[in-house]
Amino acid sequence: MSILDSSIGRLDGTPTTLGELTGGRPALLVNVASRCGLTPQYAGLERLAESYDGLAVVGFPCNQFLGQEPGTAEEIAEFCSATYGVTFPLTEKIEVNGEGRHEIYTTLTQTADEKGTDGDIQWNFEKFLVSGDGQVIARFSPQVEPEDERVVAAIKAALN
Fold first, then answer.
1. Cα-Cα-Cα-Cα dihedral sign, residues 109, 151, 85, 122
2. Boundaries of every domain in the chain
3. DSSP assignments along 109-122, one per residue
């Protein structure tokens, strides 16, 4: 089974799969939160989604880091749209670490970042680049901005 076959709910609760959300395109998958010091990264994620035809960006709201995503689905959608103009899909709120870790993140966390760190998600806005066939290509720490040259280079390589 591919990570793309994993079931997940959209932010509005309707069931889907990761493959349906990404449309078989390379994708940047990011655990997100609305009340975090890194929340302004939403703007860079949206610019990537708009700038790279063929790239999917998917946000996974998560409240596991100091309760920084406490809102309801409606509140999250309104905040992201009104504050950052987010148009890329957001999923239902999930857990990315621990016993309740979503199966998508069980797969993602097996990949190490450029420093060799794998395992648990460190914080909000950790980024994973996945190929159109569901292979995890790269992992970027939360502090790496979405438009960082390393992320952009990996995206361009995945799109070629």
1. positive
2. 3-159
3. TTS--TTS--SS--
Please determine, looking at this structure, whether the domain spanning 3-159 carries the CATH number 3.40.30.10.
yes
Mind listing the pLDDT tens digit for each residue in 86-115? 999 999 999 999 999 999 999 999 999 999
The answer to whether residues 61 and 90 touch, using CB atoms and an 8 Å cutoff, is yes
Please tell me the distance from the alpha carbon of residue 82 to that of residue 75, in angstroms, as a whole number: 10
pLDDT digits (tens, 9 = 90+) for 110-142: 999 999 999 999 999 999 999 999 999 999 999
Burial group, residue 53, by CB count within 10 angstroms (0-12, 13-18, 19+): exposed
* Cβ atoms < 10 Å from Cβ of 57: 28
Q: HSE-up of 121 (CA within 13 Å, CB side)?
A: 28
Minimal CA–CA distance to 71: which of 44, 90, 85, 89? 90
Nearest-angstrom CA–CA distance, 49 and 58: 9
- Reading the block at residue 146, the tokens are 């979405």
Catalytic center residues:
36
